[in-house]
Amino acid sequence: MTTSSNDHNTDNVVDFFTGKSYSERLNQRFIRIAPELDGLEMIYSNESHPDKLFSIKLLCWGLRENGEVVGLVPWLDSIVACTEIQDPLNGRWEGYYDSGVDEIFFEAPLHKALELETAAEYYRYDCDSEKDIIQEIPDTIGTHGVLSKDGFKTLTLKEVVSWRLYHNGKISGMLIDDEKVADTPVLPGDDCLYPADQHGDFRYFFQHHIANKIKAKDPEALAAISMLVDS
């Protein structure tokens, strides 16, 4: 038997961990994502370098249930809205950046908002489970997952092939299970893919330039990892 949500005031139900009401949490969930294909970036700062700004490429734009559109980036061990980034150095979002015109802006581009809203209106799904897959988009920024089982004494880096959006609003980075590869290249939706956070050794996501530095055992990159371990 199912119970109509109208029978209860969900505003009175509060998530123990986030402090947000159940209805607020539902309104924050992502219902549609669109890849960022024009090289737009996120600008952020941190306490260690108060006079500097840093940038990383946006993975995609996400439409929330409440209509808000935000940029998304792989950040530490998950994908997060740019406006909500947090890290051990108190990283803080400073805006979006278009290097083509050297411009910082703070709202999603109109064409991306329209794309997401139109797609969400067109693609309406009847889902039986929160784990039903709504979308899967390719990773276009060279994200890697870092695996380690011994406190970062040894590392394994695996390319993220795609990002999968579920009915509950969760977005997972998908890695390749090498033992299950039947055809190459491995594409989004392949049966050999699995969510990074389901691997017991998964630790963090890094974009390709950091991943390449880690592969080359760059001292600065390894020092940054040490800082994450210590935190």
What's the short version?
With 231 residues, this protein is an alpha+beta fold.
Fill in the keyword field for this structure.
single chain, four-stranded antiparallel β-sheet, alpha+beta, 231 residues, 2 domains, disordered N terminus
Question: Would you spell out the secondary-structure blueprint of this structure?
Answer:
Blueprint: H1 22-28, E1 30-35, E2 41-45, E3 54-57, E4 60-64, E5 69-75, E6 78-81, E7 92-98, E8 103-105, H2 110-122, E9 133-138, E10 144-147, E11 156-159, E12 162-166, E13 171-176, E14 193-195, E15 202-206, H3 208-215, H4 219-230
Antiparallel strand pairs: 1-4, 2-3, 2-7, 4-5, 5-6, 7-8, 9-12, 10-11, 10-15, 12-13, 13-14
Model description:
With 231 residues, the chain is α+β, with helices and mostly antiparallel strands. The chain folds into two domains: 1-124, no CATH class; 132-231, no CATH class. Helix content is 17%, strand content 32%. The chain has helices at 22-28, 110-122, 208-215, 219-230, and strands at residues 30-35, 41-45, 54-57, 60-64, 69-75, 78-81, 92-98, 103-105, 133-138, 144-147, 156-159, 162-166, 171-176, 193-195, 202-206. The strands form four sheets. Strands 1-4-5-6 form a four-stranded antiparallel β-sheet. The protein has a four-stranded antiparallel β-sheet with strand order 3-2-7-8, with no helix packed on it. Strands 9-12-13-14 form a four-stranded antiparallel β-sheet, with no helix packed on it. A hairpin with a 2-residue loop joins strand 5 (69-75) and strand 6. The longest helix is centred in the middle third of the chain and has 13 residues, at 110-122. The protein is globular and about 50 Å long. The N and C termini lie far apart (46 Å). The model is unreliable at 1-8 (pLDDT under 50).
